[in-house]
Amino acid sequence: MANFSDWQDRMLRAVWRQGENLPEEVLVWMSELYDEFGDMPESEFCELWTARTFCMARAAFEVIGRSAEEETGKEVTGEEFCYIDYSRDPEQGPVGVVRIKSVEVSTPDRAEVAGAVAEGLQEFIMSHYRVVWPVCGRHGHGLHVGYARESAVWKCEGGDGGGHVVRAIDPAPPQAPGQSPSRGSGSGR
Ligand SMILES: [Zn+2]
Fold it and tell me: Which of 156, 177, 158 is nearest to 167 (CA)?
């Protein structure tokens, strides 16, 4: 596997993630890519990395957007809301930036993608409808994105003991490596 680890090092350097503690899921995805395509140029890997981020952001948007619509009765898709935006600026890095409102989705971690998308949706609902979403049913406070047990959650700062977790943001993240239904949809390849 010496070839694979060399390749992995080289690719992670290409996406500016060298030496980072990456989620297991990312490493599994990379080894699957290597098994399927073998050595590939850095530029091609950067494309795939971006496509993966984009896919995760869109999948998270569908789930979280649906719950926002159900809870607020407001539409979160439409022409006036370009909900997920992708841009590539060489100065910002080799893989481009996926954005939702002013929130940048720049992580390969699925939970953090869900958290970023949730913040973008929250910002959209506030700026577009002047509605606070989501709200704690017990305390009436607007909720904040947090992380617990490696998943993104909505947190309330009310109550004793410095707040509480209200619920998961993405209740059923697709986990099966290589079998993710979201992968491949709407990305170039
Ligand atoms: Zn609360």
Answer: 156
Is 171 inside any structural domain? Answer: no
Distances (CA, A) of 78 to 65, 74, 75, 83: 12, 11, 7, 8
The residue behind tokens 């869900």 is: 114
34 lies in which domain range? 2-129
**Ligand 1 centre from 161 Cα, in Å?**
11
Distance between Cα 137 and ligand 1 center (Å): 7
Rounded CA separation 155/83 (Å): 23
How does pLDDT run across 33-59, given as a tens digit for each residue? 999 999 999 999 999 998 899 889 888
User: Both ends of the chain: CA-CA distance in Å?
Assistant: 26
What are 136-176's pLDDT values in tens digits? Answer: 999 999 999 999 888 999 999 998 888 999 999 975 555 54
